[in-house]
Amino acid sequence: MIAAPRLALPLVALALSACVATPATSSLPQPWLEAGPLREVQPDAGPADPAVRGVWQSRGYGRLLHIEESGVTRFEIGDSCYAPPRGDGAQSEMDAVSYRFFRMLPGEDSAIFQLLRGDTNVVFDRLEALPEGCTESPADDPRAVADAFLDMFERHYAFFDRRPPGHAERAQRVEAAVRPDMSEAELWDALASYMEGLSDSHTKLIGEVDGERRRVQDGQGETLPRMRSAEGGETAWLVGLIEQTVAGLGDSAHHTGRDRIIWGLADESVGYLQVFQMGGFTDREDFGSDAWAEAEMAEFNRIMDEAFTAFAEEDVEAVILDLSNNRGGWDRVAKALPGRFTDVAYTGFTTQARGSGLAPFPHRIEPAQGPRFTGPVYVLTSDVTVSGGELATLALRQNPRVTQVGQVTRGAYSTPLAKRLPNGWLVELSNEVFAAPDGTVYEELGLAPEIAIDVYPAEDPVRGHWRAVMQVVALARGT
């Protein structure tokens, strides 16, 4: 069942074409337009596809792949070239995935590689052999580790202009501290000093120091640090928010998707949908596999079908999409959500990796196959809204029937580029520039609401949230 659109289709199409900016034609390469069909690097986890065997170096990203019949060896390449140790297993979700798919380009000297189906297009060029000096046994002394760390940031970090100071000043902090005889803990502190004041929640240093797992991450906004230091911490706050929301929705409340989605009726004419995370709706642990992707999307679509069918049956006049506590996640979900609120396809945002030399890639928002709502939508955001939550908000803002209310979003859009240092520590950094279709970049700035509402006031961050929701209900009803 497809919910009846609130506007006739020709008017919807006209409104979107008039209000959604079209990216300017770029003279830079757009290889995705001429790439061949998507194929698996290792079909059925067997031998690697003969067409893709060999050595491949990325444009941007600092990756080198050596693909043999038996599988793929991934190297980090910059000033040095090495296959980092991975004996301790994955240290983050981005560290857990590898390039599973490719699309060959004409001539077969270049190809697009992807971590997941439909994921970021990373162009690799074929090399005749491994570059001289590439090693699977890299030096891991303090100098080698620090040099690799600094090289990664200098080559790939995209936002020093928005998060000063720049690389040179930050590198001086590290250079002043590095000594051949320094301890593991001292080396960690030196690298961590580089990231001090870098208000980017997508940029991290993760590793084990003297048997203790450590993590450096900045840019958490104001609300989360405040709640984490409050009595009961973040958990008590979230539990309070969930209990209050379920109570406010009454008999219409549905708390589902492994606690990641709540939906119901905020009142008799206003639907309510809160999404806490763009993924994690199933208990599967095979992150990044086709089976995982299919299960996640199937469960997400099942929940959305149920919610939007109920909204249609109740003949709601508006929907509140609450992303005020959305912590991000999978971009495919972030693009599928706006598809529930449109009957025509449009460009939601673009991406371009630093150093890739490629044109910005337009991410299309396709109308969902299941029930949709095409009346007024109010997207509630806060400084907790980050990453995939911000991508969904940015895409929704291109829809003229959507109004953003609440607070400015976090301002961290880039998919983290995960890279291993020679000693096995993990660096994640922001190398991709996400922009609105007109080219506007909201990294660090965040996406400001059209109507300001305090969502998590310091004096009452639980009840303040539901008061904000009720303010939006009043807006939707025009009262």
TrEMBL record:
UniProt KW Signal keyword: yes
Protein name per its UniProtKB record: S41 family peptidase
InterPro entries the record matches: ClpP/crotonase-like_dom_sf, Tail-specific_protease
Residue ranges annotated for the Tail specific protease domain, each copy included: 257-454
Origin superkingdom: Bacteria
Matches recorded under Pfam families: Peptidase_S41
Species lineage: Bacteria, Pseudomonadati, Pseudomonadota, Alphaproteobacteria, Sphingomonadales
Gene3D superfamilies: 2-enoyl-CoA Hydratase, Chain A, domain 1, 3.30.750.44
Signal peptide extent: 1-26
Keywords for this protein: Signal
Organism of origin: Aurantiacibacter gilvus
SUPFAM superfamilies: ClpP/crotonase
